[in-house]
Design a protein that fits this description.
DUF1876 domain-containing protein; about 90 residues; three-stranded antiparallel β-sheet; Rv2632c-like; elongated; alpha+beta
């Protein structure tokens, strides 16, 4: 049996100010499809300014949303190919 290696390219971008971090995650699939998701983090005014922590939180939230969109996409493709409603895909 032959296996084909497939790669996905995920890009992350961050926009930050002193209290907020926004992240955008995008994956490009081999068929040319792009899926985007957003994440947000807010710093409490009593916390020290740690931009990397905001990026980690906002980035993780964007990646989580991206994962949920990919599951929904896969579900739709399973349903379309099988002609029936598939069982939910749980994380």
């Amino acid at each position: 049996m032959m296996h084909t290696a497939v790669g996905w390219h995920v890009e992350m971008e961050f926009m930050e100010d002193d209290e907020h971090t926004r992240a955008v995650a995008m994956v490009r699939l081999p068929d040319g499809t792009e899926v985007r998701a957003h994440g947000h983090a807010a710093r409490h005014h009593t916390d020290s300014n740690q931009p990397r922590v905001g990026e980690e939180i906002a980035g993780a939230r964007a990646l989580n949303e991206l994962a949920m969109q990919m599951l929904t996409k896969a579900h739709g493709e399973i349903d379309a190919a099988s002609g029936r409603t598939s069982h939910p895909i749980h994380v």
